Amino acid sequence: MTSAFGEAWDLLFHPPIAHRGLWSPEGAPENSMAAFQAACVAGYGIELDVQRTADGEAVVFHDATLKRMTGVEGRVCDHTAADLAKVRLKDTDEGIPTLADVLTLVGHRAMVHIEIKIPFGEVGPLERRVHEVLIDHNGPICVIGFNPYSHAWFAEHHPKVLRGLDSYSYADGDAKRLSPEIRKRYAQLDHVAIAKPHFLALSLDMLPHPRASALREGGMPVVAWTVRDPAEWERVRPYCDNLIFEGYRA
C-alpha cells in the first residue's frame, strides 16, 4: 500500500494536520485562503471541507448554512460559486474559495485532506467534481468523510485516490437523523466494510477503540481529530499515527 500512494502515504504520519487550515479567532478564518497559506508556511498538512454549489462547483466551506461564518442567510447549496466568492468570511477580506483555487495555492507544499460534505444518500455529483479538480493537481492529497458510500464510490471509480473514513461515537444530536441501528454499527466501525478505506480518521471520543486498534495492527493507520491541546494528544497518541489539530501549534 505504501508504494501505491507514495508521498501521500508518508505524509499521513507526519507532519500534523491543521484543521480547516491554520486559523485563529483573531486571525485568518477557518477554511480561508489565508489559513491555508499559513499552514503551508508553518509546514503543516491541511484538512478542509468541500461542498457542492447550485452550479455544481466544489467550494471549501464547513457548515451547510452560511450564517455562522458569514452572517448571510441561506444554504451553500442554493448559491453559485460566483455568488459565494463575493461573500466575506468573519468580517475579513477572505472569500469562500473553490477547491481548485485552494489546490492551486497549496501546490506541492502540503498534503491536503479533502473532507467531502454530502448528505447520506446523495453520492456521485460532488465526488465527480472533486475528482475532476484532482486530475489537474499534482500535490499529495486524500479524500476523507463520514459517508461510507462516498468512499465506496471512490473505491469503485477511482481506486488510486487515497481514502480515509471519518467516524465518531454517533451519540450527539446530529446523529439522530440516522437510525439507532446505523448509529450503533458506525460507532463500532462496521461501516469500514462498505467504505474500504486506507486509513481511519477518528474523533477523540472514539479513542481508544478495540476495532480501530485491530485494524491499525493490520496496517490501517489512525489519525485523531480534533486535538485542541497537547494533553489531549498525549492521551490518545499511543493509539494513533497522526493528529488533526486546531487552537495551538502541534
Largest sheet: 8 strands, parallel, barrel
Q: Characterize the quaternary organization of these chains.
A: single chain
Low-confidence stretches: none
Class derived from helix and strand content: alpha/beta
Please list the strands of the largest sheet in the order they lie side by side: 1-2-4-5-6-7-8-9
Rg calculated over all Cα atoms: 17 Å
What does the average pLDDT come to?
Answer: 96
Number of domains: 1
DSSP helical segment count: 12
- CATH third-level topology: TIM Barrel
> What would you call the shape?
globular
Question: CATH superfamily, called what?
Answer: Phosphatidylinositol (PI) phosphodiesterase
Give an overview in words.
By secondary structure, the protein is of the alpha/beta class. The protein has a single domain, classed as Phosphatidylinositol (PI) phosphodiesterase (TIM Barrel, Alpha-Beta Barrel), CATH 3.20.20.190. The protein contains twelve helices and nine strands. The chain has an eight-stranded parallel beta barrel with strand order 1-2-4-5-6-7-8-9, surrounded by six helices. Strand 5 (141-145), helix 8 (148-157) and strand 6 (163-167) form a beta-alpha-beta unit. Helix 3 runs parallel beside helix 6. The longest helix is centred in the middle third of the chain and has 11 residues, at 125-135. The radius of gyration is 17 Å and the shape is globular. It starts with a helix and ends in a 5-residue tail after the last strand. The model has no long low-confidence stretch (mean pLDDT 96).
